[in-house]
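Students often ask why we bother encoding 3D structure as a string. The short answer is that it lets us treat folding as translation between two languages. Here is a chain of 173 residues written in the first language.
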Amino acid sequence: MFRAITDLNEFVWKNLKKDLTGLTPEEIHWRPLPQANNINLIVRHLRIEAQWQLASLEHGEPQPAEATDSVLRLVDSVGFDFEENLKTLDELCTRFIAVLRDMDESLLEKRNQLAYRGYPADLKLPSHFLSFHHPSHLCQHWGQVRTIRTLYLKALGETVPEQFFPDNPSFPK
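And here it is in the second language, the structure alphabet:
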């Protein structure tokens, strides 16, 4: 089981990272609606969250459960430079995978307890939640990135690359 979770983390990050390459500045900042997120904001958000996830995995630091002053200071300290945030996100995700790969199950359970100690007990989080919370979060935003990229290209009247619109018999042409 542990190997499967590590492989999942690696697979999700590798493929999301691939989908974040080759973007134009216009595509990075494009929004399908004025109030919608753009890819730059999503990458910034993922970079912040990855920092918390890694600190929890490495040291048992608590996952923020509330917007405290220290949480808001950290969020405010992260700029909106796409390239810098993507580079940092890559470093954080790569480190998360390496730490998880070297961790044994009992240490993961201890770090999990520490990381989520501020969360309501009635959530009944699994003892390994920390190992799949991060890739689950990445997957949610990976879908957003692909959707934004597809909509951007369609809005320009361009052909959507096969990677974003795979040949799948369950989707009619």
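Translate back mentally: Residues 2-164 form a domain with the Four Helix Bundle (Hemerythrin (Met), subunit A) fold (CATH 1.20.120.450). Keep this in mind for the problem set.
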